[in-house]
C-alpha cells in the first residue's frame, strides 16, 4: 500500500493535503482497495459548512456504499468534476486524479492533529 508522507490521514481512511489556504481530500489507497471497483461518487455538499467527521458524500463500489467523512471543519468549495464520468480514478490514482473535494478549512491547525503516514500505516496494518 502507498501512504505518501506529505499527506495527513484519518481513522476513517480519508487523506488531506494543504494547498495554500485550501485543502484537498480523498480516500486512501487502503480504502479504495478495500472497497473494490468504484462505480459512483456522490457529493452534494458544495458551499456547505461542515464539522470535522461529518459525512460529506458517499462512494459506491460494486459491493457496497460507504460514507465519506470530512477530516476537519470547513466549507466544501469544489467537487472533482472528473469523477462524474470516471469514478474509477479513485481506484487508479487515489492521491492524484482521484481526489474528491477541495475545501476551506475553518482552522488549518486542526490538520496537524491528524495522523502522519507512519501512524496511518500502523492503523491500516
Automatic annotation (TrEMBL):
Domain Lipoyl-binding: 22-104
Gene for this chain: gcvH
GO terms for biological process, alphabetical: glycine decarboxylation via glycine cleavage system; protein lipoylation
GO cellular component: cytosol; glycine cleavage complex
Organism classification: Bacteria, Pseudomonadati, Bacteroidota, Chitinophagia, Chitinophagales
Subunit relationships: The glycine cleavage system is composed of four proteins: P, T, L and H.
Organism from which the protein derives: Flavisolibacter ginsenosidimutans
Cofactor: how bound: Binds 1 lipoyl cofactor covalently.
Name of the protein in question: Glycine cleavage system H protein
HAMAP family, per the entry: GcvH
Family per record: Belongs to the GcvH family.
Function statement: The glycine cleavage system catalyzes the degradation of glycine. The H protein shuttles the methylamine group of glycine from the P protein to the T protein.
Cofactor dependence: (R)-lipoate
Modified residues (N6-lipoyllysine): 63
Keywords: Lipoyl
Amino acid at each position: 500500500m502507498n501512504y505518501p508522507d506529505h499527506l495527513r490521514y484519518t481513522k476513517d481512511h480519508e487523506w488531506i493535503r494543504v494547498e495554500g489556504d485550501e485543502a484537498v481530500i480523498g480516500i486512501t489507497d487502503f480504502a479504495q482497495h478495500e472497497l473494490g471497483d468504484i462505480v459512483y461518487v456522490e457529493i452534494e455538499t458544495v458551499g456547505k459548512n461542515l464539522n470535522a467527521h461529518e459525512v460529506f458524500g458517499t462512494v459506491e463500489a460494486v459491493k457496497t456504499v460507504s460514507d465519506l467523512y470530512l477530516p476537519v471543519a470547513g466549507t466544501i468549495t469544489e467537487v472533482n468534476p472528473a469523477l462524474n464520468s470516471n469514478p474509477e480514478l479513485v481506484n487508479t490514482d487515489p492521491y492524484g486524479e482521484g481526489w474528491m473535494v477541495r475545501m476551506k478549512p475553518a482552522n488549518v491547525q486542526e490538520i496537524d492533529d491528524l495522523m502522519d503516514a507512519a501512524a496511518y500505516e500502523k492503523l491500516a496494518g
